[in-house]
Amino acid sequence: MAKKKAKSDDTVRPLSKNIDKLIHEPARLMIMSYLYVIENSDFIFLRSHTGLTDGNLSSHLSKLESAGYVDIKKRFKGKKPQTLLKLSQRGREAFEFYRKKMEQVLGGLNQK
What we know:
By secondary structure, the chain is of the alpha+beta class.
């Protein structure tokens, strides 16, 4: 007797192809989530709330900036450099699309 495929198999596979892998990486997902909610931040605030190192945060922000998801502006506050971060419109739309796709994927899973 053939096994019937679970609904989750049929639902998850096609939807998971549409998941933005750039956002899906845990550190970048955390960065995008913070910037989506608070709208803008400076580097120090984001570093302290994500727990990422300077280099790690900087590397992930560069990837998000290259994709057009994050706007990065550097300025001086007095004599100290300050890096300001915010989601671009494209980043906001990409995050909303990602969130909806993940809700569909997770909503399609069978509970045991």
